[in-house]
Amino acid sequence: MRIIAVLRAAETWQDQVAREVSLAFSRHSLIETDDAAERTDIIDALIADMSEVDLHRFQRTVRFVARHALDGTVASVSVLDNKELLLRLRNPQLRLLVPTGHALLVDLLTEFGAGEHPKLSLTHCEIRERGGGHNDGFLFAEWKAGTRGLFSFLYGNRNRRLYFLGITLLFIVGLSLEVILTLNQNTSPLAQLGQRLGAPMLVSSSVLMLERLAQWLNERSPSLRWTPTPPREIRSPLLGSFEPMGD
Fold it and tell me: Do residues 123 and 7 touch, judged by C-beta distance below 8 A?
């Protein structure tokens, strides 16, 4: 099993990103080694089923390799021609691979991928089975930087704005019908119909407002989310973005 992740650093931060990634590796027990034999073992595990093209790219772009101190996960960092960083993590067992890879990416992106001008962004991330061909990822990750302000969440785009304005209008109409017709104590059939419509409108709009609030509370914190479908179109790293390779 393997995790393949591509990270893009801001232009003003490209000289520091490799060092920060190396420090993040250390924080998560992915230890670099100076021992030639151990380094060879790590590389052998990483390139076990690479094609010749991918192997040549790996040899040309790899910057450092590491092994997890406890679970045996091996990892590497490559700097691609377009300055993006390609992270590879491998472990035969998915239950050992995912926690390490997830925690590493969350660490990096929480520290450097949040805010109005993030230093680091996740271009692509997927989990693949060993030995598969192209486009064989079965889980994909997307970084959600979080929505800090409730106002920007509710009115951030046209669809959200119209949706919330509709809920608000429904709430105001329902509340008005309930209050005005109850105070007037009008017993006409039309007034009774208005009262019967007012209560459901008021309750429904209140539930929808609480639902939007709950959604904002869920999305306001940064998070790395895994899905079985790619979150965006997959492209080639040689063209400045990422396409799954048989590495």
Answer: yes
- The phi-psi region of residue 51 (left if phi > 0; otherwise alpha if psi is between -120 and 50; otherwise beta) is beta
SS3 per residue for 6-68: EEEECHHHHHHHHHHHHHHHHHCCEEECCCHHHHHHHHHHHCCCCCHHHHHHHHHHEEEEEEE
158: tokens are: 């046209």
- Report pTM: 0.69
Interatomic CA distance for residues 10 and 30, integer angstroms = 25
Question: Under DSSP, is residue 105 helix (H, G, I), strand (E, B) or coil?
Answer: helix
Backbone φ and ψ for 125, nearest 5 degrees, come out as -155, 135
Close Cβ partners of 16 (under 8 Å, ≥ 6 residues apart): none
At residue 135's C-alpha, the angle toward residues 125 and 128, to 5°, is 55
> Tokens 């692509």 belong to which residue?
124
> 1-49 pLDDT, tens per residue?
899 999 999 988 888 888 899 999 999 999 988 888 999 999 999 988 8
Burial status of residue 139 (CB atoms within 10 A of its CB: 0-12, 13-18, 19 or more) = middle
